[in-house]
């Protein structure tokens, strides 16, 4: 029954207009708004629901990963658009000066949306 469902994921934010500006203008995603919620339309036909939650607490994990062919180019492009990357020093996921983790596995860099949710660009 669920195998054929067009399932989607979602996460909360504390300020829908601010989230819309970030996802549409800063990240350049196709964003629609209906009933006070956002739909992020991603590559491959994927949709992600972004909904308001007054007592929103950012997730302590990555809620959305963007596979890219070149993490360093994506980090440079996003930095130029005002995105600040997370820096994890002295941990097993220590990042470099640009915020890129190079400690094994695919290159990955984490950043947050205005609500504090963690997102990443990850080498495809």
TrEMBL record:
Alphabetical list of SUPFAM superfamilies matching this protein: Glyoxalase/Bleomycin resistance protein/Dihydroxybiphenyl dioxygenase (SSF54593)
Q: Which Pfam families match?
A: Glyoxalase (PF00903)
Q: Which InterPro entries match?
A: Glyas_Bleomycin-R_OHBP_Dase (IPR029068), Glyas_Fos-R_dOase_dom (IPR004360), VOC_core (IPR037523)
All copies of domain VOC, residue ranges? 5-124
> What PROSITE patterns does the database record attribute to this sequence?
VOC
Q: Which Gene3D superfamilies match?
A: 2,3-Dihydroxybiphenyl 1,2-Dioxygenase, domain 1
Protein name (record): Glyoxalase
| Species, as recorded | Cellulomonas cellasea DSM 20118
